[in-house]
């Protein structure tokens, strides 16, 4: 295989025999010379020539596992099995080229893992003389030498300067090959000038890459805090402009002059002009402009600095995005000091001088601090922005829109030209989107209603106030609060027309700031999720209007699974209203500062409104800037910690908004109850029973000391906390065991935790002799002496809940991620580091019991908060379910399968038909040995239950395993790491053992393209890729065909599709659910999707 290289910069040929390349040219790499030059073919002219090693990014090569049709001009089409090359990657997309050199993007999900890097052949002796170097080359002393003479025919391509060197000191010589050097010396080519080929030229002759084009991004950390700093800088800049405008405006407050819109107020209030004036007098000639703490100059600085920072952070030169451009060879990185951070901090100081600009100055100051911190800890990178920006620009230039997934999901009734409201309505119903649209509409409608209703009330008040001033009807001759306010209105002017807008925004904030809490109150979600569950069984069994209407009414009418999306939507709307509220108040304050302050006081705020308002803005600044997906994915802790500013936010809001407490009482109380319950749930005692490690997945089994503490449904998730690592850090994981595993777990050896099976009574033993012996499942009891068997008291039941955790950050030297720290904690408790690792304790009588509650530090090993609702838990509402899992997203599928096959079918629960689709790369099969064991045991259990008539014929489970990235050559099948389950002594013989399934998976024999044909064909029962009801396929599933087949063979009207895994697959499934759902054919595919 010949690999490819991508020019990272334009390459000018330093000598003849060198290739000229433009940036992003692709070349074939034919060989590598010891001096660090590649012999390449390609470039613009398609010639052969030398290119310096550092000028090329080497490609990784991939074999596509499925065909992919390019969705836009800048994408590459893939053909299954035909190799493509990838240079750079971001978000599951590779930028690369195909074999003919066409460049473009392709989806990483359609290809195998990269092939091992090929060994590039060493450059052979040159086949023909290479033209003389045209460049003047220097020796190690920097002296100029004349161009070297022509090489001898077939002479190896020795770098020109090599002949002169005595010490390999220059960077060029560092690359030279000592073997080659000694051969040259032996041939008399040592210290004397010899004839040598012109190619390749010494490094000194080709210009070093300019620092501007370097892409050296390997830092101590990837961008994390600096991504946050970028968001902070953009937000600070925007507010610097806004507050800068107010700093200038406030330097020139509006003059009241005892007039409203040019008309003098009532004569009663104008005493010097009129003897009938009342006690309160407005004097239009008095120059009493208030000092609003504005300053024209500072305002201008703020505005221009804001624009500058926004431009710098938000844009870039040459697809670079300066805001996130941190090469690791820059001055900042090498010296661990952020120039940008220092500039921001210095720039903030003058802005602190005035109130409006001081607010944005504090934003800028903290941005600078975060910049300094990020650079100090050694973050480097550009977060893939350059590539993304380039791709977007290319897509925009070609009008492609950058549709990654190729075809967009097409719902029924969506054909161009045939749109009608009824069709559209039905499409929404079919796609289960109607509830979402209705809720979003209701939400915006409520906001609009609140806004305009409040606005109309306040506009009315301002008008009444103005009318009072003009009529002279404002009562100022009394002592109550209203009169006090009226006196200020008469002398200083009324609330301006901006005021009502500020109030309308404020009222919408009351509404949104209370609503935002509901979608994250898990106790509420769980309760809503469960309403009407019992009616649901009617839905399929008895499809009457009543049954249909009452089947899960809440989940069908409220899109509960979109809770976080709704939370985010409300946050955005809140941000907009908060900005509006601030801006309108600032305008109003300029026109009527003293009256505004008096109104604030009247409402009981004292002078705190500005202070609490500022703190609210401050909290929002931290929360919003850290809540972006980019920051959350890069470093969850930033998102998590910054989000906790919500405590300050709500505390200040309660003081700031006079009636906010009425709005907030219910949601905040619910939230507080939720947190208290979480703490209390977290304090419940749990035993950790067993930890299993198969790189990179750690399986943990634990159990509550009191069973009622943890009652869950399959598909749900929980939060784990390990106080040894951090008392406040909770991580979500889906439960991978069945709820009944907690009630009737397997019998295990107490000493080791190993699962045991009862040994049958030996033939011929008298019935009067006692016999209760057990043997570990990994051993063959026929080969053990009776004394080696376990007695009943040496065994016990292991009831458990399990989670399977993918451990992150295994490559880094020190443990940074929580999952890795947890693994190391278990290793600490298990110095032998042998897995599975069973934890045990002794009870009061000194007997060994499996499970340990406290770690060496005396704290609980694990705290558990849960269970919590998740989309997959609704699988039980369907007669037929398609369970689809890939990667660690399999955990809910494992839980559901176990529950149905092992327990619930025996009790006649639905779903009756289960299709399980598991996608796994050949190279990852090893880390899923736990699932191979589980599937083997479930299959055997199912067979045995059928034979014993415990499970009826209506129940059916089909398992399809898709192996991707399969190597062409057969793969050796090693022994399984965990011993086989043995089934001796049972009446039902197993159809297969885990090792045979493992072997079949490692070497899949049938292509997934033929799945439907094979499964529907004559010989399907004896197909060689079938093991009991498990089918093993080589390649990716063809969803279109599978959905069609399931539709054709369906026995139930609605089919639940549970998926957990990569969003790209989720999109594909959504497309197919929409495409194959059909009211006419009475079938609905309901997608229940979760992304980790
Ligand atoms: C509902 C749900 C169910 C999940 N189920 C599983 C499962 O069964 N098995 C499994 O291996 N993983 C599961 N995950 C993902 C798992 O929570 C994260 O991989 C884990 O928290 C990573 O933490 P870390 O510090 O080791 O990794 P890091 O390297 O710090 O982060 C890796 C990724 O995990 C995210 N992450 C980090 N901390 C958290 C957190 N406290 N909460 C949410 N996301 C976080 C980060 O944003 C990042 O994208 C699930 C996630 C969710 C939301």
TrEMBL record:
It is found in: Membrane. The chain crosses the membrane at residues 225-246, 296-316, 337-353, 434-459, 569-587, 607-626, 638-661. Gene3D superfamilies: Nucleotide-binding domain of ferredoxin-NADP reductase (FNR) module, SH3 Domains. Residues 115-130, 145-160 have a biased composition (Pro residues). One of its GO terms (molecular function) is superoxide-generating NAD(P)H oxidase activity. The keyword DNA damage does not apply. Residues 106-215, 394-416 are annotated as: Disordered. It is a multi-pass membrane protein. Keywords: Membrane, Oxidoreductase, SH3 domain, Transmembrane, Transmembrane helix. The keyword RNA-binding does not apply. One of its GO terms (cellular component) is NADPH oxidase complex. Residues 681-863 form the FAD-binding FR-type domain. InterPro entries: Cyt_b245_heavy_chain (IPR000778), FAD-bd_8 (IPR013112), FAD-bd_FR_type (IPR017927), Fe3_Rdtase_TM_dom (IPR013130), Fe_red_NAD-bd_6 (IPR013121), FNR_nucleotide-bd (IPR039261), RBOH/FRE (IPR050369), SH3-like_dom_sf (IPR036028). Residues 131-144 have a biased composition (Low complexity). Residues 163-183 have a biased composition (Polar residues). This is FAD-binding FR-type domain-containing protein.
